[in-house]
Amino acid sequence: MLAWDQKVTMPEGGHPARADQLATLSKVVHERFVDEELGRLLERLRPLEESLDYDSDDGSLIRVTRRDWEKQRRVPTELRVELTRAAALGNQVWIEARATNDFAKFLPALQRNLELKRQYVDCFEWEDSPYTPLLDDFEPHMLTSEVAEVFGTIRPVLAELVQQAPRVDAEFFEQSFEAEKQEEFCKRVLDTLGLEKGSYRLDPTVHPFCTSFSNRDVRMTTRYNETGIDALWSTMHEAGHGHYAHGIADSLQRTPLATSPSLGLNESQSRTWENLVGRSRPFWLHWYERLQDTFPAQLGDVDLETFLAAVNRAEPGLIRVEADETTYSLHIILRFELEQRLVEGSLDPKDLPEAWSAGMADLLGVEVPDDTHGVLQDIHWSQGGIGYFPTYALGNVISLQIWASVREALPDLDAQMEAGELGELAAWLRDNLYSLGRKFTPKETIERITRSPTIDPQPYLAYLREKLAALPAGA
Amino acid sequence: MLAWDQKVTMPEGGHPARADQLATLSKVVHERFVDEELGRLLERLRPLEESLDYDSDDGSLIRVTRRDWEKQRRVPTELRVELTRAAALGNQVWIEARATNDFAKFLPALQRNLELKRQYVDCFEWEDSPYTPLLDDFEPHMLTSEVAEVFGTIRPVLAELVQQAPRVDAEFFEQSFEAEKQEEFCKRVLDTLGLEKGSYRLDPTVHPFCTSFSNRDVRMTTRYNETGIDALWSTMHEAGHGHYAHGIADSLQRTPLATSPSLGLNESQSRTWENLVGRSRPFWLHWYERLQDTFPAQLGDVDLETFLAAVNRAEPGLIRVEADETTYSLHIILRFELEQRLVEGSLDPKDLPEAWSAGMADLLGVEVPDDTHGVLQDIHWSQGGIGYFPTYALGNVISLQIWASVREALPDLDAQMEAGELGELAAWLRDNLYSLGRKFTPKETIERITRSPTIDPQPYLAYLREKLAALPAGA
């Protein structure tokens, strides 16, 4: 709540006190969570856990909470405080360094964050890579080697797809779209996505995100740019996260299970609503005329085929957050490879800009003009968020595995989307995925839907191949 | 923050979880505050306190916190839980009872709240009245007998003033004023009141209030009615509360001293900005033309004298929150007298509607048509807020005592207000009052400004007499 308010409603004068408030509260929460007493209580619950079904709410609650407790207990409070401090300082330095294209300025903060992350890794046991404990914070139970295998499969296919993709005209997006009309249209679409009325809100912010304070109090945010209507897909992306939070079972509310099993699974749903729904032909068969009516000056002369080609095009670029569906995972793979090398010690942080440029040339065939548009573009490393990036691409991959099950269960889905009906899709995903919360591991959760625990990139690659093949041949 | 959000931004679906969140957090805060360890620490600080000036920040911090700790420790946790529960239930029942004009439905909840309040009173020692411990929660160090004396002085004068006040035409307010224009004008005025830019925000809500999360993060709220422009005085009222929070010294932030010494003192400042500034001739000499320009259809033909007479008129009515400056305190006196009798046991709650009607006839000369417009109109009793009402009228009284000192210190104030300049007023009040926070008792605080610790109603009565005498003779 403090964080949401900070990014959405707080007057700027509130920043210093808010930082203190967040620090105090997270300290209090952490102290209470790692208390010996909680460990004793969990121990006393072991017989109960063993007597319960693996699938039961209470059994899961004990099992998952014990894992959390044991994990958090391994990290000394002083290290945790240092990590928090270094993250805050690093973030401050990064803002300046990025604005002035000054990697040297950022380097010491990055080194400090990395050094602390290595100390953090040392609190855990790992088998395949020291990167695994970092990954585990965002994608629990996932090994670095498993991610590497998935990424190893998709890397060459994506690179080839990008290279072969036709050039598509999308210049019509390079116009001004009135912010109030964008907001009105985004809210209109959002209201049809199957979220219960009165359970959510959408607010403007600088860096869109979604959070929730219960399954009936979901806060999505978006950004209305002056140029283009990216706000719409940003809204649908956050609506996917919102759906997850909204769908978690009532019985899990106010427990550690009232969230998704991993960032990858959560991202799979933001990608589902943003891309699999929000860039699909059936969706736009319903909405495109309405969008044209909203922006007649900008889109009156753009036909549906031109529009669909533009929103599904693949085009290499420098910036991850502006990347299209096909190139996006390549941006992630670069970061994953660099992160691993940094953590394993085979890449010196000072050589990062060079490695970045080489990777971008190799993966996307683009030349990086400066660090602001290169290694300094993302906030994550500045605040110690190492191990986070892979979950974005895993989300892309997982979204298509789940989508295959959706398609099987709802053969009528295209017709529903063409009619502007998304309620059945939302209900199916809620009943089969969102409602489970964090009761099961990510793989157990995926298996419940797809009948296989494996993260299989083939549906994702098939989807991209088909999508790109459908684009009109380039100019 | 949870409470502000609940009233300003939360989607309605969030209510059940929010109630749990508020309950959990207040339980945690209470447990930590009444911990034995805090008592031991305060005891260890006694020698330090005795070595420090009475006026020092640290000395005040120890002294005031010890009083808080000792007071809170007297109330058993179970009673506190029961009080919270009864308040929540009472509030729920009141909403229904008020909507259906059904006092009988509300009666059991009121009786329960009263019974618990008596148990609460029994946790304390008192001399003059069992009402004093309740009053002390809102107006610390104040005796019931002192309030009774002040109210005894103003009661007959106010009743007479109201009776003699000329009838003033204010029909022009009974028109529709566009909400967006009201909001724009309110914000325009608010931006000139001497609050630092970027330190506050103003949002619409149902029941306007003000809260703050630091002295640079002040949240004011208001309500834009369809009829009239009460939103403006509501905004200036909340801006007075906002000024208090905004002016508290940096050195007191994040301590128990970072608030006002009492609700009465806080209310004195909301009344100062709402009435002494916001209904004054000099203020409107600057703003009235601007208001006319904003609402030409509604106010183009209303001259300044007519407008000033309307906003300063005295007119008996049934509803406290709609009452004018003169009649307002009479509404409060009725509630204070009834509360005392309820707590002392000389009035049976079932006889409350009758006593209410008799009091309204006696004090304001109005006939109460039903309980919705009578005893059920206020939220306070439903949630156990007994002892709160007197602070409103004390605020009126105190505001004029402080205003006399302001006048002396700023002989130029009228000219400044005529020029639309309120910065010096804000700065003087900040330096002499707001910055002190809760370092001193209410009376000590008043004495620092007025050189007398007595609550003296004469300036208040003189102000009303003068104001009402200046009204044009009635139709």
CATH domain topology of the domain at 130-178 and 188-197 and 248-475 in chain A: Neurolysin, domain 3
Count the beta strands of chain A: 3
Average pLDDT across residues of chain A?
Answer: 96
Biggest chain pair interface:
A-B, 28 and 27 residues
- Overall CATH class of the domain at 130-178 and 188-197 and 248-475 in chain A: Mainly Alpha
Order of helices and strands of chain A: HHHHHHHHHHEEEHHHHHHHHHHHH
Ranges of chain A where pLDDT stays below 50 over 5 or more residues in a row are none
Overall helicity of chain A: 55-70%
Specify the oligomeric state. Answer: homodimer
For the largest sheet of chain A, list the strands in their spatial order. Answer: 1-3-2
Strand content of chain A: under 5%
| Span of the ends, CA to CA of chain A | 49 Å
What is the count of DSSP helices of chain A, taking H or I runs of 4+ residues? Answer: 22
